[in-house]
Amino acid sequence: MIRRSLTGPASPTAVDGWVPWPAEFGRRYAAEGYWQGEPLGERPRDWARRFGPATALVAGPPTQPVRLSYAELDRAVDDLAAGLAGLGLAAGDRVLIHLPNRIEFVTLLFALLRLGAIPVLALPAHRRVEIEHLARLSGAVAYAIPDKHEGFDHRALAREIVAAVPAVRHVLVAGDAGPFPGIDALAAAGAAARAGRPVGPAAPPDPAGVALLLISGGTTGKPKLIPRTHWDYAYNASASAGLCGLTGEDVYLVALPAAHNFPLACPGVLGALGVGATVVLAPSPSPETVFELIARERVTVTALVPALARLWVTAAAWERPDTVSLRLLQVGGARLDAELARRIRPTLGATVQQVFGMAEGLLNFTRLDDGDEIACTTQGRPLAAADEIRIVDRDGADVAAGTVGELWTRGPYTVRGYYRAAEHNATAFSPDGFYRTGDLVRLTASGNLVVEGRIKDVINRGGENVSATELEEHLLTHPAVAQAAVVAAADEQVGESVRAVIVTAPGAAVTLRALKAHLRERGLARFMLPDLLTVVDELPLTPVGKIDKRELRRRLG
Ligand code: OOB
Asked: Taking every annotated instance into account, which residue ranges of this chain make up the domain AMP-dependent synthetase/ligase (predicted)?
């Protein structure tokens, strides 16, 4: 039996430090059908009944792919859940998952959910500083790693984490486990112990309670933890799948790290599995790896950040890969410039869908029937009719239609607070529960949002505000500019001056003078023109592949 408390607490998954929705919102979201169904860990049983022999997952070395059917996936989840229970892991325990795109990411995620334990999803590129912070903040009792990934030995890192954070009692290893318990061995022990019986906690988790903790993509300060409930996250995935027209015929490629909200649940892994599609886990997002997978597995849908979209489009223009099966390319996570967006259909043959989302909840999508103009020039509109959005000025008053302001939002899958962050929550959320995104947006006449930048990403040049995003877009229109990031540079006279950091197109070169002339021709005001130009070989990226301005500023000194 499943307990249905709409206000949250009072179950093992009602972890401390979580801000539930007020009861009246819970009642409304349930009545309107947003919040429904079983806890996430139970869902693979239903999928196994409905899609049993169909292929759920494909992963592993390109030459010898591992394939799991829906029935096998459900059994693997029970086996591993039994193994984890044997280690003493129980409902409410937090477990830090630091796995790349391999089968164990999916089986471990569901095994923990099935036990009512709470996965905390770190990204593969995170290292000691972030992992230690996340382990402490979440109060993790276990840490799951691969043996090695991209030349990095995670077992050495795990030793350091265990020494630094004594609450981490277990290290679970995918692959060659060394001194630690191996995930395969745990599953084998679990299979023997459960002897065919299904596994679950004494009391099933409350589906209105916290299921998992995502990591904020924020570029300021240390990552924060975002509590997502079974119901809100299930809605997030299934409604996204509906919007993308996903069916059992689709093959979804996970090119971004599976631990990120976008490829995990927008619709991603969870949305694809919920309709009986096949999920292909790419070990790397490099063109050579993914083009082979797309051709071999007949991939129909995938999701990328703009930096990767650029790489794929550039490579495809040369290599002419077989991407005929690809029908939909979702791009999100950072601003996609319209020119690059327009090159996607001719080179990769797929419809572009812009996704402006956040781990905190709100998802905006361009729709499949929007046409190329809207899909290439806007970041779409909210997923749910119950998503409330406000665009406000500095005082929190609604701006006039079409004017740029900060986006505030609340809704059935947008959190009401970060985990264990009471102080930060007081400013990150309005008193009536809107999440202040920090994103500057405007609403177009077509009813779509356009992201104009981040509230903090504005350079104050002697009292005049220069929007970094806006200038970046203008810079990208110069044929010699392949990538651009605009940051402030300290200046005695004007306080902050404007520094353009660019990567040039292959074989091209450009001077500051030529760039300024180009920008003036485009009608830019004098104060918007860059004062300094720095040409670099590559821009630093965040763990999911967005341009990392904090790191860039640090490198520039
Ligand atoms: C996604 O989630 P996060 O949590 O890594 O980052 C969220 C932030 C947003 O607040 C916004 O600043 C930026 O990333 N962003 C975009 C964007 N999508 C996200 N900025 C401009 N254009 C876009 N299309 O990044 C995320 C989560 C789910 C789906 C897609 C992306």
From this structure: 46-419
